[in-house]
Amino acid sequence: MEGLTLSDAEQKYYSDLFSYCDIESTKKVVVNGRVLELFRAAQLPNDVVLQIMELCGATRLGYFGRSQFYIALKLVAVAQSGFPLRVESINTVKDLPLPRFVASKNEQESRHAASYSSDSENQGSYSGVIPPPPGRGQVKKGSVTHDTVQPRTSADAQEPASPVVSPQQSPPTSPHTWRKHSRHPSGGNSERPLAGSGPFWSPFGEAQSGSAGGDAVWSGHSPPPPQENWVSFADTPPTSTLLTMHPASVQDQTTVRTVASATTAIEIRRQSSSYDDPWKITDEQRQYYVNQFKTIQPDLNGFIPGSAAKEFFTKSKLPILELSHIWELSDFDKDGALTLDEFCAAFHLVVARKNGYDLPEKLPESLMPKLIDLEDSADVGDQPGEVGYSGSPAEAPPSKSPSMPSLNQTWPELNQSSEQWETFSERSSSSQTLTQFDSNIAPADPDTAIVHPVPIRMTPSKIHMQEMELKRTGSDHTNPTSPLLVKPSDLSEENKINSSVKFASGNTVADGYSSSDSFTSDPEQIGSNVTRQRSHSGTSPDTAAPPPPPPRPQPSHSRSSSLDMNRTFAVTTGQQQTGVVAHPPAVPPRPQPSQAPGPTVHRPVDADGLMTHTSTSPQQIPEQPNFADFSQFEVFAASNVNEEQDDEAEKHPEVLPVEKASDPASSLRVAKTDSKTEEKTAATAPANVSKGTTPLAPPPKPVRRRLKSEDELRPEVDEHTQKTGVLAAVLASQPSIPRSVGKDKKAIQASIRRNKETNTVLARLNSELQQQLKDVLEERISLEVQLEQLRPFSHL
Amino acid sequence: MAVCVAVIAKENYPLYIRSTPTENELKFHYMVHTSLDVVDEKISAMGKALVDQRELYLGLLYPTEDYKVYGYVTNSKVKFVMVVDSSNTALRDNEIRSMFRKLHNSYTDVMCNPFYNPGDRIQSRFVSLGRAFDNMVTSMMIQVC
């Protein structure tokens, strides 16, 4: 825009005129209607006016900015002065009189006022021309009072509220123009901004035909004429100049907009003076929308899918955000598709937005899909909405044009709110019914379920039971060998404990976690008691417990005995071999009860000839370091030495009756040495290898002992010595073989006893280990429980 | 009263996350992020092919000292995570479910908008998609406050 220099008077005059025309108080966009009025009042020919418009750039911009307006006014002055309109004439022409605007404009405005309402007095009120704006303003204010009678008082009150402070032209005029705006449908409002956008002007070419008659109608219809004139005015520029300005790429859109604006122009013309919702879709608009709908969806009752609608509305060049907002507003049932009504609403919103209107927060009630509820309540809602708004003007939503669009928006909002409640409630209820279905299916809250780890109490208990049984079985056989510390009291205690253990085990079977807990606690005590008692004597539980499986200890016993005995028997002659062989299996049960009573008690062995000479055997037994026997194998080894000592101290070889019976021969020695080596190996073997191996040790030891005892020499030195000593003892014992028959029996019995002792010791060890295992298992289970509790419901 | 509401996409990136600005929002972001693991755990534990039978509402994901985190998964593996204040003891499970239901409805509304590309952030700053969603979330965050 060329630099415009204005004199002070011109500046003031122009500013007044601008504010007069600036109905929307935007200080930027001047209502073209007013401008047209002004220009008409300038009594300039239309073409001149058009030229002026073109020169000032309003046609290009589509609206009158302040600069454009000033330039236009200047050009008016230039034209009125008779100077040719030139762009340069703005500044070149000097001493231009102020543009004159004829009072005929007032007459026209008075006519407009008359057409608006029955404010005939307005006619008289219009005195003077624009030049005396204040006076006019006063006149306008008077008209305002009349206008306020209109139901749109809220807007009036709203409008004058601010301008009352400064009696300018704009305030009084704004209601007036606002009334005009109110009269005009949204199409009318959109008409102006429509023209504002260049590409939209091409449609006006089509509107020309329609608007041609508008000039004539201008006198009769206030709102349309100025706009129509404006439209007509706009026609020529577009046809002449703007047509070339249209980018080819926008032609599709322009065609769309063409029809749209054409329809809007048409409906503007046909608009009556009745108040209309600016958001209301006129018939022409609707028809146009329907036609557009048909292009996408032939079936008027069908839907337009979201994708198609997206493409369609993307052509409007609106930003995606706004389009999405329009969609949110228009898609009433939120189904992702547009019905005819929804489509029309969306289209209308797009048109409005294109024309510069801000999108409402909520769908205008007039745009809502034509539901039965809405139609009935629409008419009703208007009244209360308006009335309600008179009292709450501050509720106007933010919009660019505060006067009408805001009001219109607020009204629909109020109306919508009540209606939307109806509809939305239906929606929400339906949604609730739909989603409630899911909730019904919902399973119980898994949070409440506490997962308890399956107590593995049974296994430890079982193991423990087995251990107990094993211990009992093992100790049963060792009872005869270690009767020293066996006390009936212990036995009774063991009985009780065992019974309690059994009872607890039964409880665990019946109960669950808690019982297992109790069971675990009990066996611990029991086990400790057992171990303690085991420490004292390993035989007490054995005897107190129910009869253990005889075969178990027997094989071990027999094994040990068989190994040693067999070896010994194999070596020796067979007289007592058979007997010895036959007897050892029978020996164990026998000596048990016999040995149980006490250490010094003789072992009355009836059927077992081996027991005949057990007189010394019991002596051997008490001499045996039972404590040492029950300790680790190392101690066993030491005890072996001690046993050797004892053996040496003893004079009754038990194990080797055969050996004794056998002729002293190198073979016997070999056998003995072998046995002793076996003893040694067995002694040196690890303590907890197995029951089978460990019992081997005691038998060899008794064998050794017996051999040594056979010596009757008791070379203590030999005791301390190892194999050599034993060999020497064996050798020494050779001559004593003949009297070892009974001694053999005793030896066998002693060996049996020792085997049993070792068994008990081992059994105790086993029980202790089992107890430790059980404890560890319990700890593990407790840890697992804690882990399950801490883990956040992973099972769900 | 939801202190924080988050919508997580299928690929475990946030589509929408909003928390009451009174506290350090980063903490809520972190809680939501850690809750995703629990969500995945629950999803995988539910069943391999029994997606239909899987309950959308996951329930309490994990409780902390001050807050409780609830989860909800749609059939398209879009997760809703809500952090509520533990001091509010009046919040029952049904209320949480209803809140998630509303969230889901609002989310579907956003999805219905053809101008919304799945995977975009649900923006509510502009007059655009997410406005209703954001309003609903606001109402949810204020309702029981």
Automatic annotation (TrEMBL), chain A:
<feature type="region of interest" description="Disordered">
    <location>
        <begin position="105"/>
        <end position="236"/>
    </location>
</feature>
<feature type="region of interest" description="Disordered">
    <location>
        <begin position="377"/>
        <end position="433"/>
    </location>
</feature>
<protein>
    <submittedName>
        <fullName>RalBP1-associated Eps domain-containing protein 1 isoform X1</fullName>
    </submittedName>
</protein>
<feature type="compositionally biased region" description="Pro residues">
    <location>
        <begin position="585"/>
        <end position="596"/>
    </location>
</feature>
<feature type="region of interest" description="Disordered">
    <location>
        <begin position="506"/>
        <end position="624"/>
    </location>
</feature>
<feature type="compositionally biased region" description="Basic and acidic residues">
    <location>
        <begin position="708"/>
        <end position="722"/>
    </location>
</feature>
<dbReference type="GO" id="GO:0016197">
    <property type="term" value="P:endosomal transport"/>
</dbReference>
<dbReference type="GO" id="GO:0006897">
    <property type="term" value="P:endocytosis"/>
</dbReference>
<dbReference type="GO" id="GO:0005509">
    <property type="term" value="F:calcium ion binding"/>
</dbReference>
<dbReference type="GO" id="GO:0005829">
    <property type="term" value="C:cytosol"/>
</dbReference>
<feature type="domain" description="EH">
    <location>
        <begin position="10"/>
        <end position="113"/>
    </location>
</feature>
<feature type="domain" description="EF-hand">
    <location>
        <begin position="318"/>
        <end position="353"/>
    </location>
</feature>
<feature type="compositionally biased region" description="Pro residues">
    <location>
        <begin position="544"/>
        <end position="554"/>
    </location>
</feature>
<dbReference type="Pfam" id="PF12763">
    <property type="entry name" value="EH"/>
</dbReference>
<keyword id="KW-0479">Metal-binding</keyword>
<feature type="compositionally biased region" description="Polar residues">
    <location>
        <begin position="115"/>
        <end position="126"/>
    </location>
</feature>
<feature type="domain" description="EH">
    <location>
        <begin position="285"/>
        <end position="369"/>
    </location>
</feature>
<dbReference type="InterPro" id="IPR002048">
    <property type="entry name" value="EF_hand_dom"/>
</dbReference>
<keyword id="KW-0597">Phosphoprotein</keyword>
<keyword id="KW-0106">Calcium</keyword>
<feature type="compositionally biased region" description="Basic and acidic residues">
    <location>
        <begin position="671"/>
        <end position="681"/>
    </location>
</feature>
<feature type="region of interest" description="Disordered">
    <location>
        <begin position="639"/>
        <end position="724"/>
    </location>
</feature>
TrEMBL record, chain B:
<comment type="similarity">
    <text>Belongs to the TRAPP small subunits family. Sedlin subfamily.</text>
</comment>
<dbReference type="GO" id="GO:0048471">
    <property type="term" value="C:perinuclear region of cytoplasm"/>
</dbReference>
<keyword id="KW-0333">Golgi apparatus</keyword>
<dbReference type="Pfam" id="PF04628">
    <property type="entry name" value="Sedlin_N"/>
</dbReference>
<dbReference type="GO" id="GO:0006888">
    <property type="term" value="P:endoplasmic reticulum to Golgi vesicle-mediated transport"/>
</dbReference>
<dbReference type="GO" id="GO:0005783">
    <property type="term" value="C:endoplasmic reticulum"/>
</dbReference>
<dbReference type="InterPro" id="IPR011012">
    <property type="entry name" value="Longin-like_dom_sf"/>
</dbReference>
<keyword id="KW-0931">ER-Golgi transport</keyword>
<keyword id="KW-0813">Transport</keyword>
<keyword id="KW-0963">Cytoplasm</keyword>
<dbReference type="InterPro" id="IPR006722">
    <property type="entry name" value="Sedlin"/>
</dbReference>
<protein>
    <recommendedName>
        <fullName>Trafficking protein particle complex subunit 2-like protein</fullName>
    </recommendedName>
</protein>
<keyword id="KW-0256">Endoplasmic reticulum</keyword>
<dbReference type="GO" id="GO:0005794">
    <property type="term" value="C:Golgi apparatus"/>
</dbReference>
<dbReference type="InterPro" id="IPR044760">
    <property type="entry name" value="TRAPPC2L"/>
</dbReference>
